[in-house]
Design brief:
single chain; 326 residues; alpha/beta; two-stranded antiparallel sheet; 10 strands; binds NADP nicotinamide-adenine-dinucleotide phosphate
Length: 326
């Protein structure tokens, strides 16, 4: 497994991590503990040391399952969790230093830890990225020893730039073949400041695997059914904000360009080719997907012609509907 130092935390971690939004559920299905454990076992087995989770994933079951698993594999995993999305309504006013500390305590309990490796503000309203009181409390929580580091998960590039005014260790951002904006300003600045970059939604919710067609049916509780236009949360989290049919067209062009129907290793290697990216975190709803995704660690870099081709497809199909929205 390829490794890289995670920003200035000094931790040497696997370049491919595990995303656990869909851990043991396949988005919407009831939680399946056995499948969740198989996925975590696959991560351990393949040398993954980075896990991304959040207090809201499966109502806390994702964190609890990870907590149970890491107990039997002490000191192997670096677990990044997130907080804030339990607030209802999810508004700036609801963010207080006290609620943040309460969320940290909740995650410590569910993960069964004394100290969290890292906790991120989970895509709060944009104004929160400029809140001195929130970041001051995170500093205090760090001094108390409840967290080792903190950071932010962002929707918009501008939010990451705002958050860099504080002592953040990490930024989690959507970065994939269908989301190129972060590489213009955010990723170079983060690298310069020693901030770890966690590249999420690297497969555009599965679109960039190449496995979906016009006839693919998603479950009614799967956000790929109900959030295509941002009905429940930010549209960018579903298919990376790309219109599904247009995305399929762009995917068919990628298949022609790369000469294969299996885009997974190309899509993940493409993300890792940016040196500012510390870790890429494909989500897996089955253990086999973890084994399949780690192939990209051994996969060669794309050629300059292939890179130019990917950019051309982005410019022709994706840019207009996506680039300036995030
Ligand atoms: N706001 C935030 O901070 C935020 C938002 C979104 C995600 N995240 C994090 O980022 C992680 C990754 O994002 P994501 O899961 O939304 O999107 P993703 O990684 O782009 O796509 C994951 C989906 O792609 C499919 N897939 C993955 N590997 C596959 C393989 N080898 N073969 C076939 N299909 C495969 C699966 O779809 P099927 O289940 O249909 O098979 C899987 O559920 C999440 O798990 C979560 O930890 C954070």
């Amino acid at each position: 497994m390829e490794t890289k130092t995670f920003g200035r935390t000094g931790r040497e971690l696997s370049r491919i991590g595990l995303g656990t939004w869909q851990l043991g559920t396949k988005w919407g299905d009831p939680f399946n503990e056995e499948e969740a454990m198989k996925i975590l076992e696959a991560a351990y087995d393949t040398g993954i040391t980075f896990i991304d989770t959040a207090d809201v994933y499966n109502g806390g079951r994702s964190e609890e399952a990870i907590g149970r698993f890491i107990k039997s594999h002490p000191d192997h995993f670096y677990v990044v969790t997130k907080c804030g999305r339990r607030l209802n309504p999810h508004t700036d006013e609801m963010y207080t230093p006290e609620t943040i500390e309460g969320f940290v305590d909740g995650s410590l309990m569910r993960l069964g830890l004394q100290t969290l490796d890292n906790i991120l503000l989970h895509c709060p309203p944009s104004s929160v990225f400029q809140r001195d009181d929130i970041f001051a409390r995170l500093d205090e929580i760090k001094r108390k020893g409840k967290i080792r580091n903190y950071g932010v998960s962002i929707e918009k590039v501008s939010e990451g730039l705002d958050a860099m005014e504080y002592d953040i260790s990490a930024i989690e951002v959507i970065y994939n073949m269908f989301r190129l904006k972060p590489e213009e300003e955010l990723l170079p600045k983060a690298q310069e400041k020693g901030i770890g970059i966690i590249a999420r939604v690297p497969l555009a919710s599965g679109l960039l695997t190449g496995k979906f067609t016009k006839n693919t049916v998603f479950g009614s509780k799967d956000h790929r059914s109900y959030n295509r236009n941002g009905e429940a949360f930010d549209k960018g989290e579903t298919f990376s904000g790309v219109d599904y049919d247009l995305g399929l067209e762009a995917v068919s062009k990628l298949k022609e360009l790369l000469g294969t129907d299996d885009l997974i290793p190309y899509a993940l290697r493409w993300v890792m080719m940016n040196d500012a990216v510390s870790v890429v975190i494909p989500g897996a709803s089955k253990a086999e997907q973890v084994y399949s995704n780690v192939r990209s660690a051994e996969f060669p870099e794309l050629s300059s012609e292939q890179m130019a081709g990917v950019r051309d497809i982005y410019d022709r199909y994706i840019r207009a509907g996506v680039h300036d929205n995030w």
